[in-house]
């Protein structure tokens, strides 16, 4: 009952100090991870909206940058040749327009210009930079011409009042009149321009107001269904009365001008390449861009945002369904998030399993330790009880015989001598038992350190003593044992106890007494001390227990002998104190072999 209570107390303390805190911390960590996972899943819609907003902002910024750059372009460069402002007052010297040199900026197919006041048949100019040098330049030029013609027809039919309302960002600037006149002249009529140059000099101090509206972007489909994106602006120049009566080459602005300028935007760039480029810069994993033509459907693990660039960029359309042209999608999959969460959960489970395994191992080790301590306590209790019992018998015998002698119960001299002899024998037995108990206590508390020595020499010394000679021991010593790790006093105790055991139990009752054999030998490379007798032998079931303290066999072969019950036990612990061991084997032909295996000194360190 005490042992059970001790185990329960140990388990309770272990649970209180380790198991319970571990479970509490593990549970808190699990709930924390679960809460974090829920919070991350709840943030997925917001993350998807944020990704779409970044995409929208990036696309708008690039588009606005294109329009701002073109708005800064001078309205006077929309011609093949330009008369620079810094050449005013000098000879007529035109330079090629920047719209005719190099390739257009990314996203622009060409520029154009026409005077809407000329009506449906208005003349127009197209500037495509060096596109004319490309293999498909002729096809492109034809398409652009048709597009400009369609645009002229559309704007003329729409009317000025309705048309002007779509434009914003009016900017009015004052331009030198001579610069405006010469740049709106027929620049190819150089003879007129040079001949009438003195007439132009009279206008050097005059200026004209130019009304410039910002670009407005429209999306429409041509007659062949081809999508077109065009940015146009209006340049309005007031009438100039001073130009009336001027030579023809300088009188173009006498009635003012209403000019449409603009450029065609490449739809493949605006709805294809540009969104892909912005997506690479704006989106992060696991956000994904899906170009025009993809049709993702939102599911449990995928959130989809559809963006319409026509609406985002505030591009005017003629037909409502054109507002969906070029749409693309931004998706955010929570599969990666779920996979990461599952991975974290599995890692936590793995750690929990390892922790539980560690706790279980600790509990097993604790129980084993408690069991060992309890077993040690049990053995101590049993030993104390056995010693008490063994001491009680000789003490009782001594007391009984002493009282009988004192009280005069013994009347004959022979009987009196017999009682005196019994008292002496029991006293010697008591002394031997006390000595062996003290020896066991010394070995348990502070075992001696073994030292290298000559085993054969020690046995020869023992054989010379009276106890060995009296017992009729035959000595056989093997040569070449070398130095043996041993303790001389311990070895004396081993030999004495083994020989005493052989004297008591090592002879047959039905035959002549055979001398006990004390020998040394080598077994498996280790030196051994053996005592061989011709006794009745020891059953297999008792071969381990005979080395326990106070163990006595219950068969008839040992019933008549009295001993302390500690002799073979001391042999075992003395051998273990010398880093050896003791065992009992059956002797061929009958009897037992008590073998004590020792260690060679040269193998002790290894």
Helix content: 40-55%
Per DSSP E runs of 2 or more residues, the count of β-strands stands at: 21
> What is the CA-CA span between the terminal residues?
45 Å
The shape is rod-shaped
Q: How many alpha or pi helices? A: 15
Low-confidence stretches: none
Question: Beta-sheet strand percentage?
Answer: 15-25%
Class by helix and strand content?
A: alpha+beta
Task: Profile the largest sheet.
Answer: 8 strands, mixed
Rg over CA atoms, rounded to whole Å, is 59 Å
Mean pLDDT: 80
Summarize the structure.
The protein contains 15 helices and 21 strands. By secondary structure, the protein is an alpha+beta fold.
Describe this structure in words.
The chain has 606 residues and is of the alpha+beta class. Among the domains are: 83-265, no CATH class; 449-606, 2-Layer Sandwich (Heat Shock Protein 90). It is 48% helix and 18% strand. It is built from 15 helices and 21 strands. The protein has helices at residues 2-71, 137-158, 160-164, 177-183, 190-195, 197-201, 267-282, 309-312, 335-406, 413-445, 455-464, 466-470, 488-505, 556-559, 567-577, and strands spanning 81-82, 95-96, 108-115, 124-127, 171-176, 207-212, 216-221, 227-237, 257-265, 287-290, 302-307, 316-317, 328-333, 451-453, 473-476, 484-486, 516-523, 526-532, 581-586, 592-597, 599-600. The strands form five sheets. Strands 3, 4, 5, 6, 7, 8, 9 and 12 form an eight-stranded mixed β-sheet that branches. A five-stranded mixed β-sheet has the order 15-17-18-20-19. Strand 17 and strand 18 (526-532) form a beta hairpin. Helix 9 runs antiparallel to helix 10. The longest helix is centred in the middle third of the chain and has 72 residues, at 335-406. The two termini are 45 Å apart. The model has no long low-confidence stretch (mean pLDDT 80).
């Amino acid at each position: 009952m005490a042992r059970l209570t001790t185990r329960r107390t140990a388990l309770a303390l272990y649970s209180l100090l380790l198991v319970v805190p571990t479970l509490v911390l593990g549970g808190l960590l699990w709930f924390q991870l679960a809460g974090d996972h829920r919070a991350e899943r709840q943030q997925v819609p917001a993350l998807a909206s944020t990704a779409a907003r970044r995409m929208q902002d990036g696309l708008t910024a690039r588009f606005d940058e294109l329009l701002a750059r073109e708005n800064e372009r001078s309205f006077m460069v929309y011609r093949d040749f330009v008369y620079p402002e810094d050449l005013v007052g000098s000879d007529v010297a035109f330079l090629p327009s920047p719209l005719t040199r190099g390739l257009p900026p990314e996203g622009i197919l060409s520029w154009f210009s026409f005077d809407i006041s000329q009506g449906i048949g208005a003349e127009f100019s197209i500037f495509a930079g060096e596109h004319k040098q490309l293999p498909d330049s002729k096809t492109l030029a034809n398409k652009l011409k048709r597009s400009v013609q369609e645009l002229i027809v559309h704007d003329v039919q729409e009317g000025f009042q309705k048309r002007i309302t779509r434009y914003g960002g009016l900017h009015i600037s004052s331009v030198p009149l001579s610069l405006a006149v010469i740049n709106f002249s027929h620049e190819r009529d150089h003879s007129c321009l040079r001949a009438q140059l003195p007439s132009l000099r009279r206008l050097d101090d005059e200026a004209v107001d130019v009304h410039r509206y910002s670009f407005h972007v429209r999306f429409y489909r041509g007659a062949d269904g081809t999508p077109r994106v065009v940015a146009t602006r209006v340049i309005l120049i007031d009438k100039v009365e001073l130009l009336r009566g001027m030579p023809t080459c300088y009188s173009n602005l006498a009635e003012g001008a209403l000019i449409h300028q603009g450029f065609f935007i490449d739809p493949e760039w605006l709805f294809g390449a540009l969104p892909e480029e912005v997506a690479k810069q704006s989106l992060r994993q696991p956000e994904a861009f899906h170009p025009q033509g993809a049709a993702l459907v939102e599911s449990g693990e995928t959130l989809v945002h559809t963006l319409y660039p026509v609406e985002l960029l505030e591009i005017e359309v003629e037909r409502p369904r054109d507002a969906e042209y070029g749409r693309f999608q931004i998706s955010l999959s929570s599969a990666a998030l779920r996979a990461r969460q599952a991975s974290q959960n599995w890692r936590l489970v793995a750690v929990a399993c390892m922790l539980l395994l560690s706790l279980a191992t600790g509990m097993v080790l604790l129980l084993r330790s408690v069991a060992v301590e309890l077993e040690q306590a049990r053995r101590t209790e049993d030993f104390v009880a056995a010693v008490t019992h063994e001491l009680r018998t000789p003490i009782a015998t001594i007391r009984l015989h002493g009282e009988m002698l004192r009280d005069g119960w013994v009347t004959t001299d022979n009987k009196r001598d017999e009682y005196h002899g019994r008292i002496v024998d029991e006293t010697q037995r008591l002394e031997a038992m006390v000595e062996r108990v003290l020896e066991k206590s010394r070995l348990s508390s502070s075992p001696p350190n073994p030292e290298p020595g000559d085993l054969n020499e020690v046995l020869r010394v023992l054989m010379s003593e009276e106890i060995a000679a009296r017992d009729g021991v035959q000595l056989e010593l093997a040569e070449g044992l070398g130095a043996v790790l041993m303790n001389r006093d311990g070895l004396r105790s081993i030999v004495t106890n083994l020989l005493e055991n052989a004297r008591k139990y090592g002879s047959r009752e039905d035959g002549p007494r055979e001398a006990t054999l004390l020998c040394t030998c080598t077994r498996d490379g280790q030196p051994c001390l053996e005592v061989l007798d011709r006794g009745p032998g020891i059953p297999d079931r008792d071969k381990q227990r005979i080395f326990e303290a106070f163990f006595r066999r219950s068969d008839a072969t040992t019933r008549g002998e009295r001993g302390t019950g500690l002799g073979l036990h001391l042999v075992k612990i003395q051998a273990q104190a010398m880093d050896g061991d003791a065992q009992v084997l059956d002797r061929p032909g009958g009897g037992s072999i008590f073998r004590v295996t020792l260690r060679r000194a040269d193998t002790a360190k290894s």
